[in-house]
Amino acid sequence: MKSQPTTALYWITTLVFSAFMLMSGVTNFLETSESQEVMKQLGYPMHVLRVIGLGKTLGALALLQTRFRTLKEWAYAGFTFDLIGAAVAWGDTTGEAMAVVFPLLFLAFMAVNYLLWKKMERLRAYRAAGAPAEQPLAAELAV
C-alpha cells in the first residue's frame, strides 16, 4: 500500500472515530439526561460521567494532533480500556449480545485506525532514511 491511500484512510478513520468520541465525551461531561439514564442503568455514580467525558474529549483531541506520539498512544490505550469496559458493563447489566458487540465493533474500528497510524509512522521513517518515494515498499512495511 502506498503512502497516499494509507494517509487518506488513516485520516478518514481518525476523523470518524474522534468525532464519535468527542460527541460522546461532551454529552457525558455535560451530564445530559441520556447520559444520566445510561449511568443509572449501569449502576454507576453520576460523577463518573464527568471523568469519562473529560477523558473521551481529551483523547479525541489527542488523536487529532500530530506532534506528540506518546500522548496519542495513551489516547488509544484509554479508548481501549473505555470500550472494553463498556462491553463488559453492558454485558453484565443487560445480557444482550448487541450491547456487548457494539463497543467491540468500535474497538475494532479503532484498531484499524491504530494500525494505519503505525504504518504511516513506518512509512515516514522509511522515507526519512533516504528511500525514494517511487521505490517499492519493503516487506517489513506490510501491516
UniProtKB/TrEMBL annotation:
Localization annotation: Membrane
Family annotation (Pfam families): DoxX_2 (PF13564)
Residue spans crossing the bilayer: 7-30, 42-62, 74-91, 97-117
InterPro entries: DoxX, UCP030066
Membrane topology: Multi-pass membrane protein
Keywords: Membrane, Transmembrane, Transmembrane helix
Highest taxon, organism lineage: Bacteria
Protein name: DoxX family protein
